[in-house]
Amino acid sequence: MTNNALYFYRKIRDYLNIYLPNQRGASPNTIKAYREALNSFIDYIVSLENPLKQISFSCVSRDAVESFLDWLEQDKSYSISSRNQRLAAIKSFMKYASERDKTLMVLNLEIADITKKKNTIPHEIEFFSEAALSIILEQPDQNKRNGQRDLVFLIILYDTGARVQEILDLQLRDIHLDGNNPFVSVTGKGRKMRTIPIMEKTRDHLIKYCRKFHPYNQADDYLFYTDRKGIRTQMSADNVGKFIAKYGRQGHLKSTEVPEHLYPHMFRHSRAMHLYHNGMPLPLVAEWLGHSKMDTTRQYYANADTTMKQEAIEKATSKLNPLINGELDLDWEDDEELLKKLYGLK
What we know:
By secondary structure, the protein is mainly alpha-helical. It has two domains: about 110 residues, Orthogonal Bundle (DNA polymerase, domain 1), CATH 1.10.150; about 180 residues, hpI Integrase, Chain A, CATH 1.10.443. Helices cover about 60% and strands about 5% of the residues. Strands 1-2-3 form a three-stranded antiparallel β-sheet, with no helix packed on it. Strand 1 and strand 2 form a beta hairpin. Helix 3 runs antiparallel to helix 4. The mean pLDDT is about 85.
């Protein structure tokens, strides 16, 4: 490996292992996201016939970063949001590197000048119906230990509306099942803590689950874990994604109400949508989701809001209304003069 390559990789190592956790106080999830972004960028540079052991700051340029971003969007089908997140990670690393090596200042300024791409496509969230939820929850095999665990995971994932990593990070100390108001304490983005109430039925499921899966009740144990040869480790998001996808395929065979391509974040959207449909005000939904800005919630649920209004209008319109019963028959097709007036041509 060349000296320039060693210098480049040491800067990345120090950035990820020292600067982000110790000086920025970044959360483990943020560090993981930045690591994945830098790995993707390096993989892209390698794909341009640059050997990994020879990659250095000389391989990094504004053109390289911009072509990497286009590659993510066009070849890898990344969303604009994901593209912008990768750009933010590269900018952050270059800013860090240039502050410690002034010879990189010009390169940092060139990359810092790359603007985020605006997303002009309305974001339409994916969610399933409450009827679909019933079918999904029937899929885990309750005769198997993993099936029992999966069912409780699906229940708490839906009931809390939390992000999958927030559920995976839950420890027994975060579960509060005593008293009349059971709740869980989750740590969200930016290490922000929020308290989420859970339903009585969810508490009952959690009590039974803990009796079987946590008989020793160690406060720092992860609520959900995997057990390999007697060694417990925190369950991974990949593991969750696999069994949720499997239950989605199984459920879809029984009813098309169940999305064929089911994924963890759909539970969060679905729970929020069901609460919103059933009367929870949007500001409360935003707080419950842990959105720091109401604009985020409005952006996600604007289309659903229009659908709800349309359904409400149709339900509130009497069947005697001529617009509903078909008594009103307006035949304008052959009236060219009227059509011109309607469209402002006359």
